[in-house]
Design brief:
about 400 residues, mainly alpha, elongated
């Protein structure tokens, strides 16, 4: 089982944050065998496909440069022109081959681990200069795996080369009996396909190395249980900090709530323990809105602010508790309380009209009928129907 520097076992899968941090530092799964094999395959394939045209282009360059007149050979300007033309023609001829090789060189690393450029990976790590850690790496599991891969590559490549020699034995021996130019062409053909076969045999090593690199990277990224807990603390914050944030959020919400009390239409109280403030937009057409609520000290503060701003305060313990326990701030009251609240608002609007000299004084508001399914006691427990009378 993998362990960290403190000797704790790494039993937990890496978190997303851990993987992202490792990626920023250049730690991703890579397979050198995959990159090398793709590069060699692309180079050999490029030579096989483009070799004929490339050879003809090079032959043309040789003829162009070795068929000089005496005057051209002793003319500096002409020789510079020859040099520039030769360089341009050589680059133009080799460009398709270089393009194939460059594409393969880019695809190899990207195929496993994706595209990544990390400046942190370029920073020298002096810990790698530690002799003791160097000795540990020499005798580590990774070094053993690399040794096994090297032996496997020698065996696979050697076996493939022997097989190709056996397959082309007759063709190789026949080269001695044909003219020079056809023999060279035939030899290049045999060598090209033999090298391609030997390079392709490395795919066997790649098929084993890629899953191992993924497994090894996942194993290195594993975390101890304590590391996971520490990361969660760093992400979510320390308990005392989170508590302080929640306290500040409550204080801000309370300030906003108290600022809404002066605009309320009515305050319904318990009369001591509960206070709820309602506002009704006549033109809006919606249900009455709960703009503030509180118990004990907060209920007293709501009443004090309401008195200061001359907001009407009414006592109705069942209705105050029902609104408090069924409705959140800035929410409309539930439909079950429409009738009860409508009685209160009708009385409030009549009383306000009388105060403004626009109507008769309303009769005192009697007991308000609150539906039984929204009756609560002081601690928020629903009152059974048989006890609700």
């Amino acid at each position: 089982m993998a362990e960290n520097e403190n000797g704790q076992e790494k039993t937990e899968e890496a978190t997303q944050k851990r993987l992202e941090k490792a990626r920023e530092e250049g730690e991703v799964a890579r397979s050198k065998e995959l990159t090398t094999t793709l590069l060699l395959l692309a180079a050999v394939w490029g030579l096989i496909v483009l070799g004929a045209d490339l050879g003809q282009a090079l032959i043309g360059l040789m003829r162009f440069n070795f068929t000089l007149t005496r005057e051209a050979a002793f003319n500096d300007n002409v020789m510079l022109m020859y040099l520039s033309d030769t360089a341009f023609a050589a680059i133009k001829s080799l460009l398709p081959f270089f393009a194939v090789v460059i594409v393969a060189a880019l695809i190899g690393p990207i195929a496993l681990g994706g595209f990544l450029f990390s400046s942190k990976a370029l920073v020298p790590k002096f810990s790698r200069m530690d002799p003791l850690k160097g000795i540990q790496r020499m005798f580590s599991l990774t070094s053993l795996v690399e040794l096994i891969k090297s032996i496997a590559k020698v065996i696979v490549v050697g076996a493939t080369a022997i097989i190709m020699l056996m397959l082309f034995e007759a063709d190789i021996l026949a080269l001695a009996r044909i003219p020079l130019e056809p023999a060279i062409a035939q030899l290049l053909h045999l060598v090209s396909w033999s090298v391609l076969a030997v390079t392709a045999s490395m795919l066997f090593i790649v098929a084993i190395d890629v899953p191992y690199q993924l497994f090894d990277h996942s194993k290195k990224m594993k975390m101890t249980l304590q590391e996971v807990k520490d990361e969660m603390k760093d992400s979510e914050g320390k308990p005392e900090v989170k508590g302080r944030i929640r306290q500040l959020q409550r204080e801000m919400a309370q300030r906003r709530m108290m600022e809404a009390v002066p605009d309320a239409d009515v305050i319904i109280t318990n009369p001591e323990h509960f206070s709820v403030a309602l506002k009704y937009d006549v033109d809006g057409g919606g249900a009455p809105l709960l703009v503030a609520k509180g118990v004990d000290f907060m209920a007293i503060k709501i009443r004090e602010v309401a008195k200061h701003h001359q907001v009407i305060i009414l006592q109705s313990p069942p209705l105050a508790r029902a609104i408090y326990f069924t409705t959140e701030i800035e929410e409309e009251i539930p439909s079950t309380l429409y009738l009860a609240v409508a009685q209160v608002l009708a009385y409030v609007f009549q009383l306000r009209a009388h105060t403004d000299g626009k109507g008769k004084k309303p009769k005192p508001l009697g007991d308000i009928d609150v539906p039984r399914d929204v009756l609560y006691d002081a601690d928020g427990t629903p009152i059974p129907e048989e006890n609700s009378q």
